[in-house]
Amino acid sequence: MSVPTATPTVAFTTPPNYAARLAHLLALKGFNPISSPTLIVQPTPSTISALKPYLSPPPFARPLLRHRLPFTHRNHLPFRGRRRHQSPSPVAARRCIHYRRAGQGRRAHGRQLLPVVVGLVEPPVVPDFLRDLEAKRWVPVRVNAYETRWAGPGCAKQVVERIEEGALDAMVFTSTAEVEGLLKSFKEFGLDWEIAKKRCPKMLVAAHGPITAAGAHMLGVRVDLVSSQFDSFQGVVDALHTEISRLS
């Protein structure tokens, strides 16, 4: 089935770093994508300084560290394959896990490269992740490798304008922090989620995975669609396209 003739407008709050990717996928499905980032994700001088020691391990440690860069999100994959002595770019300084085995029969040590959260509440996925590592007998050391910052009071302006017009068909969230950032900006415009839904009662909410959906629910935002494909944004776009086509 195809998207109806009247082009549905879909707003998303993804950070600018990879907003173009999501916008492109939405456009390919016949949607009118509206990018309204509620977060800024980037390295800062302090996070780069914190990260550098782990990009250039001492020579004796290199054999142990090789090929031990699992990632917590596919958007952090550009980091893969970079030589450890290079300074991280804005794309490279993303959340990842850098493990080092302490030896057979001993507890394993690792450094978790995670965000500094500014202007928002740190999502529970971060402390939960660290606790899970400890439960698996890792000794995690947190390294603040990049900064996640609220995009500011006016970041939801485009979303608010379309809600006021009753012209928003769907919202896509790719992280819990994005939801919090949107709601925080809504307050600056005298709006909340309940009012937004009353003005756009048919607006669908899609989440890129169950963790984002659960986080949104905790913040009072009911999610209609949850992507079951986490390796790219294609999953959430396909789910949204299927549902809007079904409802048309």
Automatic annotation (TrEMBL):
InterPro entries linked: 4pyrrol_syn_uPrphyn_synt_sf (IPR036108), 4pyrrol_synth_uPrphyn_synth (IPR003754)
Protein name according to UniProt: Tetrapyrrole biosynthesis uroporphyrinogen III synthase domain-containing protein
Superkingdom classification of source: Eukaryota
Pfam family of the protein (one): HEM4
Biological processes per GO annotation: tetrapyrrole biosynthetic process
Domain Tetrapyrrole biosynthesis uroporphyrinogen III synthase: 127-231
GO terms, molecular function: uroporphyrinogen-III synthase activity
